[in-house]
Amino acid sequence: MKDQHQPKVRSGVKDVVKSKVGVLPVVGMFYAICCAGAYGIEEMVPECGPGLTIVLLLIIPIVWAYPYGMICAEMGAARPVEGGSLIWVKEALGEFWFAIMAFSNVIWSLVCNTVYVVLAISYLGIFVELTQVEAYLLKLLMIVVFFIINVLGIKEVGVVSTIMSIIIILAFAVVAVVGFMNWNQNPMDPFVPDDVGVLEGIGAGLAIGIWMYSGFDEMSLLAGEIEGANRVIPKALMIVIPLISLTYILPTLAGIASIGNWEEWTTESGGIGYTTVLTENVGVGFGAVFMVVAIIGQCSIFNVCLATGSRGILILSDEHLGPQFFARLTKKKGSPYVGLIIVALVSAILIPFSFSFLVVIDVFFMVIVSALTVIAAIILRRKIPREEVPFKIPGGTPMHALMCTCVLIICVLTTLLNGTDWFLGGLLWILIVPILYILCKRKFGGLTVKEPEQYPINPRTRLGPLDLHKAGYLYMGIGIYAILARWFLQWYEGADAAEYYLDEWGSGLFSDFPLMLNVITLTGMIVFIVGILFYLLGRKLEKQ
Fold first, then answer.
1. Regarding beta strands 10-11 and 328-329, do their DSSP bridges make them parallel or antiparallel, or are they unpaired?
2. How far apart (Å, rounded) are the C-alpha atoms in residues 195 and 356?
3. Which of 105, 107, 465, 522 has the fewest CB atoms nearer than 10 Å to its CB?
4. Within 10 A of 496 (CB to CB), how many other CB atoms are there?
5. What is the phi/psi pair of residue 465, to 5°?
């Protein structure tokens, strides 16, 4: 007999279904979204040198992963709500910054999702020659398979992620064991390449390393669907942070010590990497199996990114910054199927593009999400009574302040150290986020629809009371930062930058280093002027 009280249509956060998801599946999901293997570390070895690579792999967890993970754990324990970090920013900073956070998170998720589909089929292409049509159809198949898993529910996503994560961990454990058994050279020599300074090496390594340790805030978006999330998620974080660190450090140390040739380490086909440890010391067959694990790794990340990306869309809709039907949920499991469809469709549209094209815009969005999460944590730590926080960062307020400072400093460094192409790509895309908010606020009403007293509207602008001022300050800040960053990038990239970008991109804007610098300067000036115009318009229309 059907439950007479069951709603005919589930929609929005109020109707999400809580599932009993244990610590292990949450560890699996965290591991998938933040790691899924050490793929990508190979690029650090020739850039930084083997010695500096090992040192950075030891230091980055201390100054970035552990602090950011602990901040997210404490906030997740205090506010285990659907939408997680998005709702933390809403509570701490209000509607404007909530919207910047939410739109940035959704755009970041949409692009990230597609990156992992592209990478998975690229790895398959190493074994099997694929036409463009065949590759595209396989990418579509991957999207459909994980779309179905996500529609089934968060519990199923967790089970699949756990199985995949166990396979990945075992594979890298084998690499580490084989590497250590065949240790024949000093993995720390040389510390840095002869033609690379320590500062330059640190910059290159941080750019890759921070990327490898990103995503600790993303699981918070699912907290409203996990029973006892305020206990489960912090416990899972305490397990997964050292697990990820060991996944990166041990195979890399063992691999360099056993096969050397650090100058030739790369993720590209034909280069040296973790697979080589097995092919040289055990057999070609084991190397082929390891490459299959690489495909599984990308699938596992996509699986969880699909889940978190759809929740971002759900929250935008639920807070009336998007069409209401975007918040529709499946009747039985409460999965945001419309959000999942949107993420899957966008991924299907973007998969023809190259990996390089897709990732070039990611850094700015990652930094915006991370920085706003930390700022919200600083504010809410003062507002939330301590007795409402079941998990607290050891060391109290001084340690919390130190951790927040570390994360914010690294956020700034990350935008500057990934390269001029990444800076410019992210800069051009991030500028549309305030415009998206203004358009959606005027169209759908925003938080005023649900909470008119707390979030009043200015009838002259149909926005929040000081939204034009805030947009003006944001654009002016971005403009100043872009102009200052232009001079830093010119110094940091050095004399070889023009040749490097021409070789890397071949043609187009990103291949011309001087042109990129000029575009950054011009964009900074224009954006600063736009910010002034928003501010002046705000003074006229937002008088108290």
1. antiparallel
2. 25
3. 522
4. 11
5. -55, -40
SS3 (DSSP) at 251: helix
Taking the C-alpha atoms of 306, 309, 311 and 312 in order, what is their torsion angle to the nearest 10 degrees? 180
Sequence-separated (6 or more) residues with CB below 8 Å from residue 64: 209, 210, 213, 406, 407, 410
DSSP 485-542: HHHHHHHHH-TTHHHHHHHHH-SSGGG-HHHHHHHHHHHHHHHHHHHHHHHHHHHHH-
**Segment 91-105 mean pLDDT:** 93
Enter the tokens of residue 255: 């691999």
> pLDDT tens across 290-348, in order?
888 888 888 888 888 888 888 889 999 999 999 988 888 888 888 888 999 998 998 88
Unique residue bearing structure tokens 């995503």: 215
Which amino acid is located at 300 in the chain? Answer: S
Closest by CA to 188, choosing from 274, 247, 257, 264, is: 257
Cis peptide before 61 (omega within 30 of 0): no
User: Two tokens at 408?
Assistant: 């914010």
Phi-psi region of 39 (alpha: psi -120 to 50; beta: other; left: phi over 0): beta
- pLDDT bin (cut points 50, 70, 90) of residue 2 is very low
Q: Tokens at residue 474, please?
A: 């944001």
